[in-house]
TrEMBL record:
Keywords: ATP-binding, Glutamine amidotransferase, GMP biosynthesis, Ligase, Nucleotide-binding, Purine biosynthesis. Catalyzes the synthesis of GMP from XMP. This is GMP synthase (glutamine-hydrolyzing). The keyword ATP-binding applies. Its EC number is 6.3.5.2. ATP binds at S142, G143, G144, V145, D146, S147, S148. Pathway: Purine metabolism; GMP biosynthesis; GMP from XMP (L-Gln route): step 1/1. Residues 115-304 form the GMPS ATP-PPase domain. The lineage of its organism: Bacteria, Bacillati, Bacillota, Clostridia, Peptostreptococcales. The keyword Ligase applies.
Length: 429
């Protein structure tokens, strides 16, 4: 069944996402679009029931007032103008605003509350088939929530035409590459190319201590490895990406620019000229998770905690060495295991270990040892801009300390990082 849609037109408001979200919570699908939509762009969107011209503080760009295109004004559906052309702003009080939205969406537009995940998936599957035809699609599958859900959706829509590439850069958590290969190749029957690029990355990173240089090397090398794979596959026309709504929506009129500039795939050379496939670009993070569950992905994958692109590379402080990297990986696995046992897994936003490049004296087997410390970090946050430290029960910290000092080679000390953000950041680099 096709979902009814309300279009939110960015007329310079910083609250487009907010309004989009509130209408979705009423059960009606929303999309945010630019003020200059053409007739052709509009015609590609089915079941538009109404349009909200959402004006706001950024209505004037480079001295020119933003105006809605003729196509939008003559779309033949009800138009609600807010804070625009003399119209009133949204009511400040939440209740009054929702009343206004509800009345427009259901009474004026006669939209039905038929936005749900099954309808969304059915519609995306149809759209993907229409976009891709019998073409081949390539996807870099990191195993993160977004790329995993894109993979699952594409497998459902165009199965054998999809090739997933999973690059193991050596900086993933323990068991992660194996889980990606198992879930997608064995359980979901995907074409999956597993690239063992561990040596390639670690060689490039050898001796590099500066965090930003490390990030740059990891990012650039990733593109190179992916590019090599893309070239070896023939006739691939499409590149799928796990772009989600918050990635493309900044705020206000930036939306317009952000949506457009997003169509240049960062870093890939021009001769690899793919058309983008971004089926999640209209979903918020929690909706992406819901979509993943509906498509049968394991909960461990769908509710995975955030993990930085450069992975354990920024948790092995300074120049990365293989032995210290293993200490990060093994201690992280122990931390995750013990947090799961203690029921902290779904409760704490992000938790991990860090191994700084210092050594301290300890005692092992009645002899003096000179080994690394492991730092435990467990934080809660809403938007990652600020964070508080989780009050992990002391007994859990003791168990983790015992296990890490006994099971992880080269580690004789465990510390708990008590620093909120600010003063510290969440990561150590
Ligand atoms: P900070 O350390 O800035 O981290 O407080 C905030 C959030 O961002 C994640 N993070 C990254 N994610 N690439 C990423 O994809 C990166 O280079 C990166 N650095 C930090 C971090 O894990 C936390 O969730």
């Amino acid at each position: 069944m096709e979902q009814d849609k309300i279009l939110i037109i960015d007329m310079g408001s910083t609250r487009n996402t907010y309004i989009a979200r509130e209408i979705r919570e009423l059960g009606v699908f929303t999309e945010i679009h630019a003020h200059d939509m053409t007739r052709e762009e509009l015609s590609k969107i089915t079941n538009i029931k109404g349009i909200i011209l959402n004006g706001g503080e950024n209505r004037v760009v480079d001295g020119v007032q933003i105006r809605a295109s003729e196509a939008l004004l003559n779309a033949g559906v009800p138009v609600l103008s807010v804070d625009h052309e003399g119209s009133a702003p949204w009511p400040q009080e939440e209740e009054a605003r929702i009343d206004k939205l509800q009345s427009f969406v259901f009474n004026t537009c006669k939209a039905e509350a038929n936005w749900n995940m099954d309808n969304f998936i059915a519609e995306q599957v149809a759209q993907l088939r229409a976009q891709v035809g019998d073409g081949k699609v390539l996807l870099a599958l990191s195993g993160g929530v977004d790329s995993s859900v894109v993979a699952a959706l594409l497998i459902k829509a165009i199965g054998p035409q999809l090739t997933c590439v999973h690059v193991n850069h050596g900086l993933l958590r323990k068991g992660e590459p194996e889980e990606v290969v198992h879930v997608f190749r064995e359980e979901m029957g995907a074409n999956l190319i597993y690239v063992d690029a561990v040596d390639r990355f670690l060689d490039k990173l050898a001796g590099v201590a500066d965090p930003e240089k490390k990030r740059m090397i990891i990012g650039a090398e990733f593109i190179r490895v992916f590019e090599d794979e893309a070239r070896s596959l023939k006739d691939v026309k499409f590149l799928a990406q796990g772009t989600i709504y918050p990635d493309i929506i900044e705020s206000g009129t930036k939306t317009v620019k952000a949506v457009k500039s997003h169509h240049n795939v960062g870093g890939l050379p021009e001769d690899l000229d793919f058309e983008l496939v971004e089926p999640l670009k209209m979903l918020f993070k929690d909706e992406v998770r819901e979509c993943g569950l509906a498509l049968g992905l394991p909960r461990s994958m769908v509710f995975r905690q955030p993990f930085p692109g450069p992975g354990l590379g920024v948790r092995c402080i300074g120049a990365i060495t293989r032995d210290r990297l293993e200490a990060v990986r093994e201690s992280d696995a122990i931390l995750r295991e013990e947090f799961a046992k203690a029921g902290l897994e779904g409760k704490v936003w992000q938790y991990f270990t860090v191994v700084p490049d210092v050594k301290s004296v300890g005692v092992r087997d009645h002899k003096r040892s000179f080994e690394w410390p492991v730092v435990l970090r467990a934080v809660n946050t809403v938007d990652a801009m600020t964070a508080t430290v989780e009050r992990v029960p002391y007994e859990v910290l003791e168990i983790i300390t015992h296990r890490i000092t006994h099971e992880v080679a080269g580690v004789n000390r465990v510390l708990y990082d008590l620093t909120p953000k600010p003063a510290g950041t969440i990561e150590w680099e």
